[in-house]
Amino acid sequence: MSLAILVAIGGLITVGIYLITTRSLSRIILGFSLLGHAAVLSLLVAGGRPGEPPIGGDGVISNPLPQALALTAIVISFGLTLFLLSLAVRQQNLTGDDLVEDDLEDRRVGSTEPDPPSEETDPQEEQTVA
Amino acid sequence: MTLLVALVIVAPLLAASIGLLVRSHPIVRESVVGLGLGTAAGSSIALLAAVIRSGTVTVRIGGWHPELGIVLVADLFAALVLPWALTIIFVVELYAIGQRRTAWGSNPELSGPLLAFLTAGLSLAFLTGDLFTLFVSFEVILVSSYVLLTHQGRRGQIRAGMTYVAMNLFVSALFLFGLAFVYAATGTVNLALLAQRMPDLPDNVRVGIGAWFFVVFGTKAAVFPLFSWLPDAYPTAPTSITAVFAGLLTKVGIYALIRFHTVTGMSDLGPVFLTVAGVTMVIGAVGALAQSNVKRILSFHIISQIGYMLMGLGLFTVSGVGGAIFFLLHHMPVKTVLFLVGGLIENEQKSGSLDNSGGLATRTPLVAALFAIPALSLAGIPPFSGFVAKLAVVSAAVEQASTAVVVAALVAGFLTILSMNKIWMGVFWGVRPDKAEQVPTGTGNLWLMRGSTALAVAATLIIAALAGSLLGLSERAAIDLMDPDVYIDEVLS
């Protein structure tokens, strides 16, 4: 097992978690991609020692199964990163910044003001943005 | 029978793809989606009959050996859960067609086909015989749910959706790490082979993997302390979508927990499960009491009820796991119905808040009756199915002398009744405040919505009527689960 890959996994996880805990959506998205890369690398490590290509190689071949799994995981995280980006753009359009909003419930519990009107029942807004 | 297993997954998948292609023609789209979901529900019922008659059906996709290829395993557990899940989705689709013209309805072009994608993912999650396909099916379910939750693009939805997506992405990454650990330790991700190889691993590795997957599946199932995303995200979506999420998505997490942790023999984790289960039940019920919106109260009940299923699993006895499986069967339709009624209430009151409601019992007694039956069932009042389910898990816990968790279960049951009372008094009794805010809702097809809700209530009553034989089947499924050799035999032979 390669020490270099292990160090890389550790580094990716560290930076990824750090980015996810920030308040800016674009950084959070980057954090998730780094975390995804770390997971894919660890799948590769799980496949054991490197070797010849499984088709056409001679001698000890490398294990193709974890690589197939890693490929699937990469494709999925590709799509999800795009989806997250589109959510972030939507948020930017609605609020003008890309910061994570406070939890409504937290604000309600923390404030002494009477409850603000609930916003889930707001069809006019929906029509203007649709 | 191979055909039945395939149809359950392929029919909704095809319906979703065709539905998206013809999305601008409402009648064609709705009939394609309805046909696909109906076919899946029908085949799942036929599959259950076949499995009861002649045992587990195993399908090797492409004829590959389980070590290399994907296997689909319809054992009694999977076959029992599928018909309820798919029938409920079919009923919810009817409700959604009725609701789509209201302000709380969803964008019809997307929501029907996406619901079908979600159904395909659900069927795959129930039927798959290996962990990686489980990961993929989770992603199919989640991607559909992300879009269903946020596709209207309202501000509240984007905010709650962001939390939901981020939470689930993080858990998906954890799932991938877990897969790497499992593969590194055993050289396989196939559940039957894992069942064979896990007992040979050193204890700390085995329990470590079990605990890791408890976190992964536990977050999907919303157990304490990993539940905070749920009551925030669920109420923001349109009713028909929340109903599917509430009834089915968290149950997939519980299903995976039961499947993985019994097959791999993780009974060492039993005490952890029981502790988490007790706290989850009480915290969920207390959280429900503190809310003042119908859908938020119901969302907290989901968490509380998850605790009961986890408690049955945590006992790791045949009666405990059997009780958990029966609880799962009972909870899927009951929870879905409650959310559907929550949507009816919003439609009648033009608001989901308890402060703006009142007097619905005299204005629409039908809605009151539709709410009362599943609410009493959820709280565990006889003769409804909730009573049988709670009795099954609690008596299994008494057999094991787990007093603390039994006390927690009874306290949580009491608190559940209290918060149901809160909805009842706020919405159905009393008078509506004069200054109540009203939100224009447009006109949905009310009778289609009410009719499908009534159909779902009937499904919960069927569970109550068949409780004896269903509980017997659940215990048979539990016996198979608790003895990994049965599963190994069925998949590998």
Secondary structure topology:
The complex is a heterodimer of chains A (130) and B (493).
Chain A: H1 3-20, H2 25-46, H3 64-95, H4 104-110, H5 123-129
Chain B: H1 2-21, H2 26-54, E1 57-60, E2 71-74, H3 76-99, H4 108-127, H5 131-150, H6 155-186, H7 191-197, H8 203-221, H9 230-233, H10 239-263, H11 270-289, H12 294-315, H13 318-349, H14 360-363, H15 365-379, H16 385-399, H17 403-428, H18 446-465, H19 467-482, H20 484-492
Antiparallel strand pairs in B: 1-2
Helix pairs in contact in B: 1-2, 1-4, 2-3, 2-4, 3-4, 3-10, 3-13, 3-18, 4-5, 4-10, 5-6, 5-10, 6-8, 7-20, 8-10, 10-12, 10-13, 11-12, 11-17, 12-13, 12-16, 12-17, 13-15, 13-16, 13-18, 13-19, 15-17, 15-18
Quick description:
The complex is a heterodimer of chains A (130) and B (493). Chain A is built from 5 helices and no strands. Chain A has 130 residues and is mainly α.
